[in-house]
């Protein structure tokens, strides 16, 4: 199972960007700190997660402590952007990553994995300056397209652009510029690039001020994928929960309890979304009252967090179809296999 040479060659850039992010944007999570060096053991879940507002909120408000007391399980967590590294080193039972990056995770870590839960949809948009007449990426051929990496969400956009317009996004019809994820929308507003694959929560100021706008009626890559390939589907997922296959097989109780905890977390998000944005503005790259207010309104209209962590077999099939699209469009090689899923929606532990 291998990724195409075009994608593999870009992983060093992605790693460098991740390193920069670790130094410049990492914020401590509720149970942050170094990963546990202990080996896996019954009753303990070693969970590694990038800094996250819902996880912080559940720790700070006692939800995790309450869950531990009621479930009888203990969760050891560490906050880091290097989830792949800790997983490869055997220091995590569960991590999060994009669903479409799981085959690469397995290839790099040489560990069999299974997707046990869903968390949020791939939320990136194509942004251009407000005065740019472009309607789609087809109007931007040869222009400078800013990305923070040529893997991650760029994989999905590459497949969509090929499907919709017959264009090659990377090493093809655009001048791709790799830049810091937090600076992309600012570079766009200043005219240093012509468009970007940007996350709305890292573009709040420019979107609020109206200096940039989104193409495709503001739809994310997940929105467009749903329309084109899987009507009604909420993916592909920018974050799913992935676990070692052997650990899942040996610890069904821990898996079920972990999903229960995150169902509570998703419910807390729905009930206290505004409070979380106010409480942890750093997770949304906002600081001023104006940007915080904008982000509250934006997320209320474009929430990328799922309602439930568990999924059924049909959802897994729909999520897997992103791999069909990426293979059909040459974004990944034909020998890349779909990730494995563990449907548990409606299944009693």
TrEMBL record:
<feature type="domain" description="SsuA/THI5-like">
    <location>
        <begin position="119"/>
        <end position="275"/>
    </location>
</feature>
<feature type="signal peptide">
    <location>
        <begin position="1"/>
        <end position="29"/>
    </location>
</feature>
<protein>
    <submittedName>
        <fullName>Nitrate ABC transporter substrate-binding protein</fullName>
    </submittedName>
</protein>
<keyword id="KW-0732">Signal</keyword>
<dbReference type="GO" id="GO:0042597">
    <property type="term" value="C:periplasmic space"/>
</dbReference>
<dbReference type="Pfam" id="PF09084">
    <property type="entry name" value="NMT1"/>
</dbReference>
<dbReference type="InterPro" id="IPR015168">
    <property type="entry name" value="SsuA/THI5"/>
</dbReference>
<comment type="similarity">
    <text>Belongs to the bacterial solute-binding protein SsuA/TauA family.</text>
</comment>
């Amino acid at each position: 199972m291998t990724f195409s040479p075009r994608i593999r060659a870009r992983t060093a850039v992605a790693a460098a960007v991740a390193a920069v992010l670790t130094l410049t944007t990492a914020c401590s999570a509720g149970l942050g700190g170094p990963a546990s060096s202990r080996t896996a053991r019954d009753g303990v879940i070693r969970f590694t997660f990038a800094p996250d507002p819902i996880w912080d909120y559940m720790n700070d408000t006692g939800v995790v402590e309450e869950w531990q007391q009621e479930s009888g399980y203990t969760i050891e967590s560490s906050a880091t952007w290097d989830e792949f590294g800790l997983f490869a080193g055997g220091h995590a039972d569960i991590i999060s990553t994009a669903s479409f990056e799981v085959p690469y995770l397995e290839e790099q870590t040489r560990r069999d994995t299974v997707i046990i839960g869903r968390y949020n949809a791939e939320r990136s948009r194509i942004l251009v300056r407000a005065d740019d007449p472009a309607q789609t990426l087809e109007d931007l051929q040869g222009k400078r397209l800013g990305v923070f990496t040529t893997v991650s969400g760029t994989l999905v956009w590459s497949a969509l652009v090929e499907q919709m317009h017959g264009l090659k996004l990377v090493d093809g019809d655009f001048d791709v510029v790799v830049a810091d994820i937090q600076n992309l929308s600012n570079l766009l507003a200043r005219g240093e690039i012509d468009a970007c694959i940007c996350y709305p929560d890292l573009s709040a100021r420019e979107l609020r001020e109206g200096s940039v706008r989104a193409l495709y009626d503001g739809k994310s890559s997940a929105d467009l994928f749903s329309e084109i390939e899987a009507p009604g589907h909420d993916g592909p997922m920018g974050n799913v929960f992935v676990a070692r296959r052997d650990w899942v097989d040996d610890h069904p109780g821990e898996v079920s309890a972990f999903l229960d905890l995150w169902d509570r977390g998703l419910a807390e998000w729905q009930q206290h979304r505004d409070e979380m944005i106010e409480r942890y503005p750093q997770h949304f790259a906002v600081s001023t009252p104006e940007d915080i207010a904008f982000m509250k309104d934006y997320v209320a209209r474009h929430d990328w967090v799922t309602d439930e962590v568990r999924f059924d077999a049909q959802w897994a099939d729909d999520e897997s179809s992103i791999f069909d699209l990426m293979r059909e469009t040459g974004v990944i090689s034909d020998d890349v296999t779909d990730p494995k899923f563990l449907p548990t929606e409606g299944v009693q532990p």
